[in-house]
Amino acid sequence: MTNPTPAQVTHVETERVIVRIQRIKPLLSAAGVEIPVDFNDAVNLAKVIPDAEAFHNVYGAQRRLSTASTREELNAAAKELAEAEAIRQATRSEAYIHALDTNRVNMLWGAIGNHSTDWFAQLADKYNAEASTFEAAAELIPDMRNVKAMDLDRRSANAVADAKESAARLNVFYHAYYELGRLAGDFEALHANSDWQDFREIVLLVCQPQTWAHANDAAKALQAQRFGAEVPLAVLMPHIIAPRYGAKLELARHPGVIGDRQNALLGEPAAGLGMYPV
């Protein structure tokens, strides 16, 4: 798991890392994954802004100093203000910010490290439980490369509608899984310059293709859909690639399974995910 530490990045970059990690929580919650106490506590702690609390304490001490009516109250308020101001200045120091960043990031990464394997498995199980419903509808959809949507018969049109509803449910689990994988460093970010071969990782994530030809064709379809080409039933991607290319739709219970599926196609241990026949 990639774990950038504050020693390696600036405060601003650390904040970006924290925001990325925090975004996992609502995705997991939407997918019905129970949020562990330690991760929830780490997320809440990461939201704390110490200098804001310090400013509030200084303001309160100033008010008490300005309204003091006895020497004792005046001395107590003056001491409180001096201490609050010293703390406020400390929270702005580079050393304090670095130490706080280290604590916040380490708590978040630690919680993710404790639970990511279980989260992947939960998300995969939920996805795969829905996959059979999707596959049943997908089997009734004709090859849309040769058929216009307006020409579909009632049975096929209903199948498309059912597949879209099922895909919407699958997407909740898939997006949480994929974003968790990207955060953990298991998946490379895909962009406009990504080669179609880069998309085979997604193919191997959602199914075990029967042949390299199937894996390659599915990867090319995913690339085309991702970057603007008109692909039939694009709304059903990436789930539709499994039944379309003769494979069972089955999200890997851990990203490491991608390597196992690659090995099954190669017939021998692979040197890495980049070692594909073309």
What's the order of the H and E elements?
A: HHHHHHHHHHH
Count of distinct strands: 0
Helix content: 55-70%
Proportion of beta-strand residues: under 5%
Structural class designation: mainly alpha
Cα distance, first to last residue? Answer: 29 Å
Which characteristics define this entry?
single chain; 278 residues; mainly alpha; 11 helices
Describe this structure in words.
With 278 residues, the protein is an all-alpha fold. It has helices at residues 11-22, 24-30, 37-46, 50-66, 71-91, 94-138, 154-183, 200-206, 212-226, 241-244, 257-266. It contains eleven helices and no strands. Helix 1 packs parallel to helix 6 and helix 8 packs across helix 9 (212-226). The protein is elongated, with a radius of gyration of 26 Å. Residues 268-278 have low confidence and may be disordered.
Topology:
Elements: H1 11-22, H2 24-30, H3 37-46, H4 50-66, H5 71-91, H6 94-138, H7 154-183, H8 200-206, H9 212-226, H10 241-244, H11 257-266
Helix pairs in contact: 1-6, 2-7, 3-6, 4-5, 6-7, 8-9
